[in-house]
Design brief:
- By secondary structure, the chain is an alpha+beta fold.
- It has 3 domains: about 1-35 and about 260-290; about 50-175, no CATH class; about 180-235, no CATH class.
- The chain has helices at about 5-35, 180-195, 195-205, 215-235, 260-290; strands at about 45-55, 70-85, 90-100, 105, 110-115, 120, 125-130, 150-160, 165-175, 240-245, 255.
- A 5-stranded mixed barrel has the order 1-4-5-10-9.
- A hairpin with a 5-residue loop joins strand 2 and strand 3.
- Helix 1 runs antiparallel to helix 5 (about 260-290) and helix 2 (about 180-195) crosses helix 4.
- The longest helix is centred in the first third of the chain and has 30 residues, at about 5-35.
- The chain starts with a helix and ends with a helix.
Length: about 290
């Protein structure tokens, strides 16, 4: 056994994987505990923890494409039961649809936009079975269809509309004018005017010679600058938008139907599992050496 490279590979995986699981679990516990729950109305810019109910943006209706249930986020997967030459059966994914549409989180003091892209989502999960490549109905009455060897398995992960959700991410308040670059806007507008020489001459060719001289070009530039300033002033009057998204520093971005206490308990169990894996690998190594 000690000369079997597979033995040492398994032992190494247990030790290294166990340590990594233990360490990452402790980091998650520390982050969950050290980040206080904020209120949207008074949340500071940066990494925050929010809890509230989710709903679509005004005027939007979001629903799962698999069951039709109203939900702000979904991840739907269809797997097919395949059988190889040896008669062994396995499930292979054949279709998947995932939502990355923004939605709102409302905690009673205010609402902020949630950008789910890049988030680790813990959602409600429903699994049922059927005979078609895409389900023709929801899971009601079909959960035990696998007993009849149904060839397709449907997995639906949802954040239903109205669901209480925990969010840990980066909170940002943005205004329409935050990304304004006056020089770039001026250059873009002048380039648009130059692309239509006839309209440019009709507007700024004051001496009628069919050309735009330096003085006339300066008039055009002054007019373009006035339009850019007016547009920027209009954008500055638009209300600010609060949003929470994946942190720019690469740290965890969590969306979960679980409470903070439940996630901490879950992380503790994962840390214990990591310790057990690591100790198991060390015992294997010690027994092989002796």
């Amino acid at each position: 056994m000690a000369n079997d490279p597979r033995f040492w590979a398994v032992a190494a995986v247990l030790v290294l994987g166990g340590f990594a699981l233990w360490f990452s679990s402790l980091q998650r516990i520390r982050r969950l505990r050290d980040t206080p729950t904020a209120r949207i109305r008074s949340a500071a810019q940066g990494i925050v923890e929010l809890v509230g109910q989710v709903r679509p943006l005004p005027g939007e209706h979001l629903a799962s494409p698999m069951s039709g249930q109203a939900a702000v986020w979904w991840d739907c997967t269809v797997a097919r039961r395949d059988e190889n030459a040896s008669g062994r059966r396995r499930w292979s994914a054949v279709a998947q649809r995932r939502s990355d549409a923004a939605f709102l989180l409302d905690d009673g003091t205010g609402a902020c936009m949630v950008q789910p892209e890049g988030a680790e989502v813990t959602a409600q999960v429903r699994i049922w079975y059927g005979a078609t490549p895409w389900p023709r109905s929801g899971p009601a009455g079909q959960r035990w269809a696998w007993l009849g060897q149904a060839p397709y398995r449907y997995t639906e992960k949802l954040l239903p509309t109205g669901q209480a959700v925990y969010v840990l991410g980066e909170f940002r308040t943005r205004r329409a004018s935050d990304d304004d670059d006056p020089r770039a806007a001026l250059s873009h507008l002048l380039a648009q005017w130059k692309a239509d020489p006839a309209a440019l001459r009709a507007r700024f060719d004051r001496d009628g010679d069919g050309q735009i001289d330096l003085h006339e070009w300066e008039l055009a530039r002054t007019a373009a600058l006035a339009e850019v300033d007016a547009l920027r002033a209009q954008r500055a009057d638009q209300p600010a938008v609060d949003a929470i998204a994946r942190p720019e520093d690469g740290s965890s971005y969590l969306l979960s139907v679980l409470t903070e206490r439940q996630m901490v308990a879950q992380a503790r169990w994962m840390a214990v599992l990591g310790i057990g894996m690591g100790l198991g690998g060390l015992v294997m190594i010690a027994s092989a050496i002796h």
